Fold these 2 entries.
Entry 1:
Amino acid sequence: MKRRTFIAGAATAGSLAAVGSVAYGAAAEPDSTATKAGHVRGATAITKVFGDGQKLIAVAVEYDREIDSSTLSTSTFAVTDRTVTKVYANTTAALAERGRDGRYVVVELSPDDTAAALWVTGQGSGTPTGTPGTPTATAGPSPSSSSGSGGAPGGGGPVVGDTTPGGTIVAAKGTLTQKGTVTTTRGTRYAASGTALTTSSVVNLIVDDFKQFTFDDPATGQTLKYNLFVPKNYDPRKSYPLVLFMHDASVVNVATEGPLVQGLGAVCWASPEDQARHESFVLAPEYGSVVIDDTYEPSTLFDTTVNLVKSLTKRYAIDQKRLYATGQSMGAMMTLGMNIKHPDLFAASFVVAGQWPAEQVAPLAAKKLWVVVAQDDTKAYPGENAIMQVIKDQGTKVATAVWDGQSTAAQFAADVRNVKAQKAPVNYASFEVGTVIPAGSNVSGHMATWRIAYTIPGVRDWILSQSQ
């Protein structure tokens, strides 16, 4: 598993703070109890992306000798402003179901801690407290529950060309102290110490598997930054599908990696589990400005995105009959718009919390779609209802379902099977009122939709099973 320093701040890349005053690399004392400082080689932050964004979920401490995993407990370490849930040894700076003796001690942390959040928006992601480098949530326009793109023009929401970030990325960094004794496999005891240790490197699960590039589009003159996941066993003699994920307005102009850390919309397709079932490329552009608003007149970045997809099919062994689009809010609108303007481009699309003028959507009746929206979403829900009616009027069968947003993974799997059993080219699932917004949260039903929608593997399986 590779390591690299990740991004900090809203719009520019940065490095993490240097390790504190702990003296790493001191000479080992062969058979005596020693201080932590003399035997610790460093500490690595481990992050994971959830439906509501990237979080710091563990710290891996590297020692100079193999550690006896059986001697560790949750009281061995304390992490500032965090809840320790599990402690074990490992041979690498990686999570594990069970500990194994090795030079790393992995301290797992609760993702529910306020200070866990590394992606912060103005709508309920939570601003971590007591965490070094914690910014204040950006004061610019943030997505509204009443608009697919983030607010009606002139109503205080983002409009085409707006470059104000609606979210902030916090540097992944943890500070911990060794509260109990750590014992090596040879019986050497490393005594507890009050010296604070700060992480100096980061492992970003799945996110690190993407690479960052820039596309200069000769047709539009626009430059578009993007993230690309290439299948780990890529063979140019084979043919692979490609999934295009388009983010919402809160991620505009944040950082190239923004679409990877704001939620699961991009990284879920690149997970080891999904790749084991469907080897595929995953493309996630980072838009430097709002591409589309409620006027439904997109900027030239709309066409640049299509041109980027086409250029990648020429550079890699990508099957042009297995191209897929997905997006949330602004990205959902782009997905719908692209299927209308380029009806032969995508084999299937996953549309999450978006809408398009009903009088323009007749071409969607010939497409394969899975649409998810929350009934709490006062703009996207009636908008999608209108689209479905047009599709039905065109003679296309639409499978419909109402889901409980608080369902378990097993219940969602059954829900997906029930929809698939209807054998329709267009599938429409709405989350029941009041089931997507977490208790005590100020997150809108609009934004809460994609926190759940991209956690359902069966939908992704259906999308990737389609072809032209």
Entry 2:
Amino acid sequence: MRYLVLSAVLAFAPLSLLADPLPSWTNSHAKDQIVAFVDGVTSQDSPNYVTLSDRIAVFDNDGTLWAEQPVYFQFIYAMDRLAEMAEQDPSILSTPALKAAAEGDLATVLQGGHDALIEVVNASHSGSSVDAFQSSVSNWLATERHPDTGLPYDQMTYQPMVELLRYLRDEGFTTYIVSGGGLHFMRVFAEEAYGIPPNQVLGTYGNTSYEVIDGKPTIVKAPGIAFIDDKEGKPINIERTIGKRPILAGGNSDGDFAMMEWVTAGDGPRLGVLIHHTDADREWAYDREGLVGKLADGLDKGPNMGWVIVDMAQDWTRVYTGAN
């Protein structure tokens, strides 16, 4: 009889009672806060219960779900792609910034500021169909390695965050990426890396056009940026695309502040999860200074908003999916 009762209890027990849903997280206050929030919004007898249709979680990508040093991985792709294109047509290297990018000279490109970065992205990301562009990205991910870790870029996803995404979905959440990264770039790997399908990826997107090429209807990537999904653009894009205010948001930089502020300001139970890069041994340690991932407002204001500040060095037992 005891066995039958125990079996019945386990059959209907939530996942968090059957096994540790976040095995790569230490038994810390951050983990406890996340699990308590999820338990609260998914337990029907809880005053914080949230219906399935409203269990929406949004996450930044660069620096939140995968690494972003020494520069956003998409920009490394852009430089590699530009060098490949220049082999076929050297005339495309028409400016100092483009020449430097094709040579892998990141420092010189960065000296050119925002205009130089846009030049490189426009030259490397436009002029082909979306399908051809995404095939190029897929081939790049399959062959290239990070200069410091030697890992494939799509194995530098954060194992603790992959677990968090899976845990949330197991508990009835719909998970989205909302990132400043390129929409077409992220959609190549998001489903395999994170379990997030392409239609749940929101990002920056460039101009496109509809053309019939050799009798085939085609979406072509054109020069110019149509929408930047960063800072205040993130909540705008969420409202426009998803149509509901999520109840959980995760980020790592001040580019995510507006999204997290807006999400956690809504009625009912809310949670912000801010990843603080503190691990110089297994990853990189940075916050207020640096080229990418600057974090000041989140550290200063997040605790008073009830956000969970995740100390990567202390709260994670493992960093990358591709290495211990």
